[in-house]
From TrEMBL, chain A:
GO terms for biological process: monocarboxylic acid metabolic process. SUPFAM superfamilies: NAD(P)-binding Rossmann-fold domains. Belongs to the short-chain dehydrogenases/reductases (SDR) family. It holds the Pfam family adh_short. This is 3-oxoacyl-[acyl-carrier protein] reductase. It comes from the Bacteria. Coiled coil: none annotated.
Automatic annotation (TrEMBL), chain B:
This is Uncharacterized protein. It comes from Seinonella peptonophila.
């Protein structure tokens, strides 16, 4: 079985690669920088460095995939987009929306021929912020809501082609990206970050943030064939879908 | 009316001439079929434009008090790629309206969203009139989807 993971060098991306390897996949791991992937996984994986926004880098991914099939593609790339309405500007919006949203249909188009060969699964790592909006997070919400909408529509259209499309919408996961965002949220509300974290935790019914392995497993769960939800929210109960 | 993509459609003129709506504050987000990069145009360009406008509005709240309705007007999509891009855009619009409503509240400016497709002019007018009315004072951050499924 063969898988492509984009954003594989991120915290959740690395967790996904680890789980896919345990399941016996041959993994192609893409990220802007792949040195940490190479240090961690050595020859167990094939790495493809590059920027998904650049056509020449996407071509490199296509060349690495070659003419063989792909059983799954996991789009785990993304950047933090937190910030108040007052703070956001055109450059920031462009960056957040491009990386977090525009690249998804581009990646799907690129990998569709390989997915069709195996009737594979395309999974997007979206967010709970793509289901229920958050204050001081308009750019990120716009991008993640867009991805969820795209997935719902394209999933129906591609069903007749035998290609499955799903989105994982996890909640707060203990990653550097989360803590950076929480610091910005705290600053936007004018409170200390520890106070903000305490308040945030009180809204999560399970009472804690997710471990990386837990979120990675919720994504990999969606790569399994058979009946699975198109949109899967694993949020600790903070967002119910 | 703010026309995000300067579409200047005939129905915009009809809305502007409607006496009940002449004082309404609306944004038109037109999703035109047949363009080369639909997802990028609808979602990236559209979101960037509307967020920039809403930032201007909320940074100058005193000048813009009242109801502000965004109309997402979608052509019939030509293929599944356009259809998915339009759905992505509608959801992006929902996320934007919801996020800003949660960030700023809805006391001074009440944001709402309507989606309409072809032949939806009558329903759009009725919905806009409703949103302007006192009966709709509790409708905030809402998405009203008038589009028939293709």
């Amino acid at each position: 079985m063969r898988a492509l993971v984009t954003g594989a060098g991120g915290a959740i991306g690395m967790g996904i690669v680890h789980l896919l390897l345990k399941r016996g996949y041959d993994v192609i791991a893409q990220d802007v920088r792949t040195s940490q992937l190479e240090e961690t996984f050595a020859t167990e994986i094939t790495t493809v460095p590059g920027d998904l926004m650049k056509e020449e880098d996407r071509k490199r991914i296509a060349q690495t995939i070659g003419s063989d099939s792909l059983d799954c593609v996991i789009a785990a790339h993304g950047i933090d987009g937190s910030g108040s309405l007052k703070e956001v500007d055109a450059d920031f919006l462009n960056r957040v929306l491009s990386i977090n949203a525009v690249t998804i249909p581009l990646l799907f188009e690129l990998t569709l021929p390989a997915l069709k060969k195996s009737k594979g699964v395309f999974v997007v790592l979206a967010s709970q912020a793509g289901l229920v909006a958050e204050p001081n997070n308009v750019a990120y919400c716009a991008a993640k809501f867009a991805v969820v909408g795209w997935v719902k529509s394209m999933a129906q259209s591609m069903a007749r082609e035998g290609v499955v499309i799903r989105a994982a919408c996890p909640g707060c996961t203990k990653t550097p990206l989360l803590y950076a965002a929480q610091e910005r949220f705290a600053a936007a509300e004018g409170v200390h970050v520890e106070e903000f974290l305490k308040k945030r935790l009180s809204k999560i019914p399970v009472g804690k943030f997710a471990e990386i392995e837990q979120t990675a497993s919720s994504v990999v769960f969606l790569t399994e064939r058979g009946a699975k939800p198109t949109i899967f929210a694993a949020t600790g109960g903070e967002v119910l879908y | 009316m703010i026309d995000l993509f300067d579409n200047n459609m005939e129905f915009i003129q009809k809305l502007k001439n409607n006496p009940l709506l002449v004082k309404s504050h609306t944004i038109l987000w037109r999703l035109e079929s047949g363009i080369s990069k639909p997802f990028e145009t609808y979602v990236l360009d559209g979101s960037t434009r509307i967020i920039a406008y809403l930032k201007e509005v909320f940074m100058n709240k005193d000048q813009y008090q009242g109801v502000l309705t965004t109309i997402v007007w979608a052509d019939k999509p030509k293929d599944v790629w356009e259809q998915a891009a339009m759905e992505g855009c509608w959801e992006a619009a929902r996320g934007i309206v919801q996020a800003i409503t949660m960030e700023y509240g809805a006391v001074d400016i009440r944001l709402n969203l309507i989606r309409v497709a072809e032949d939806g002019h009558k329903e759009l007018i009725e919905t806009l009139e409703y949103l302007q009315s006192e009966q709709a004072a509790f409708v905030a951050g809402s998405s009203i989807d008038l589009k028939e499924d293709f």
